[in-house]
Amino acid sequence: MAERGDKKFGFLLSLTGNLSLQEKKEKKGRLYSTKKGQQKYWFWFDEKECVLKYYKSKELYIQSLHTPLGKISLADAKVTPAAAYEHASNEDTSNTFIILTQSGQYFALTSDSAETCHDWIRKLQAKRTEWIKKDSDIRKTLPRAISPRNYDRVSGLVGGDKSFGSSLGGGELLRTTGSGSVSVRKIFIDQLEGKLSPFSEYQDPFESDRPLQRTETASSSASSTNFYQTETDGIREGEGEREEEEPAGKSLCNSDDSGGSGRGGSGQSSFITSTYELTDQDRATLELKAELSETRSERDQLKKQLMQLQEKLFKKDEKIKSLQDEVDKLKETIHKINSPNSDYALENENLRVVIESLQKSLKSLDGEVELHKLKLKERNSELDLQNE
């Protein structure tokens, strides 16, 4: 992480900075390095995509004209200190944290100090929680019929489950809360007691860290169409009317469920185990949303490039303005010199008068010199005559 004086900067505002990266692959309980040693890159967290991107250098990141060397998605990943995962290692990992992805990728990132490492983990956790909450709010605005409740997510970035890496198999993600782990891939339905209400509010597994309160069972082969048809036909009917509809093939509950309990006998209620399947229209809607997100990302990139070009033009305009000021000063000086009323002209006129007076004085002195010469000649001639 870069430093300026005694204050860190970069990650505190936009999660950017230098980190050493070592990528590994998990195979049969062991970690194999895909690159020799650790290499230093400039990292940047993209809040719009919840992705940690890395570049070869800070200069290439600032230019924003090069695509990143790679990126690490944090939407389905877990971030934890290396000491919590590599507990059997004898090396000092206080300044290292790891990222475990759903596909089994293992990224070890090393910072300059343990304090910087903790700051990265804390900031990544806050940003990812904010992203999940925003994504959850978007899903809440959709109709329940097309809300992707089986969205693959894990709730926490920093968790106490050290066996998280080994549980990333077959695309199954587990969220460990309370006394047990609950899958977030299935839809939870209330017990069939009284009026059936499939649209009742269920606890969202991404909105809270509290243990889920509803019991989860394996999904059955009953179709979602039958489920919603049952709700439409019998939502306001009594318990007896729903029992009459079950022989017609519209009920999703059997007298004997997977746990072996029935409506009568043991006294336990049955569970609805149907999952909702998205229609072609729903899939098209989600694809359009994904394309819209990509378009917005490209638009933001173009805006960034436009701001850089505007900054360059602004600097050039400032340089042109400074040159124009210098030219104006030179023109003003020339005008003063050529002006007859200027100080320069007055000084030149005074010098001219002085020079003329000096020239007159020289001429008068020349006349006197000639006169003295004539007198000297006459005096010499007189002396010559006396000597003879």
From TrEMBL:
Region Disordered, annotated ranges: 199-271
UniProt keywords, alphabetically: Coiled coil
Domain named PH: residues: 24-129
InterPro entries, per database record: PH-like_dom_sf (IPR011993), PH_domain (IPR001849)
Keyword Coiled coil applies: yes
Keyword Disulfide bond set for record: no
Coiled-coil portions: 285-375
Name this polypeptide is given: PH domain-containing protein
Source organism (scientific name): Amphimedon queenslandica (Sponge)
Gene (name only): 109581973
